[in-house]
Write a structure and sequence with these properties.
globular, 4-stranded mixed β-sheet, mainly beta
């Protein structure tokens, strides 16, 4: 080591990458982020507990246009939930865009999934990530 430089005390590297068993995994979810429910494998689906005025759709049942896009039209008094095993790859508010089927989705909420499907909606959608979903 060069005498001109002072030694820096660094903390010791952990011996194991595993967390101690007594510490619980704490996931923090910001309320202004994507509404998402993650279901453990083999756990019952929360779709049965949703309000009677909500609709649950399975992502695999949606029929996209030639560009892989689906636009959902629904009343303001009905909430829509999408159940899927696919990972969300993007979400937000759509920039100026017209779908292959000719629908202007500018300013709508969008949700993109790993399979290439993008869903547009005028209101927020609750995404239920269930490994048992189709």
């Amino acid at each position: 080591m060069n005498d001109d430089k002072a030694a820096i005390d660094l903390p010791q590297a952990p011996v194991s990458a595993e967390a101690p068993a007594e510490e619980a995994l704490n996931l923090h979810v910001d309320t202004d982020k994507l509404p998402l429910i993650i279901v453990e494998p083999g756990a019952p689906s929360p779709a049965d507990d949703l309000a009677a005025d909500s609709v649950v759709l399975e992502l695999g049942d949606l029929l996209p246009d030639s560009s892989g896009e689906v636009v959902l039209f629904m009343g303001e008094d009905v909430s829509v939930n999408i159940m899927t095993h696919e990972t969300i790859t993007g979400f937000g508010i759509a920039d100026p865009h017209v779908t292959a089927s000719g629908v202007d989705v500018t300013g709508l909420h969008f949700y993109s999934f790993e399979g290439g499907l993008t869903v547009y909606s005028a209101s927020d959608i609750l995404i239920i990530n269930d490994p048992n979903a189709a």
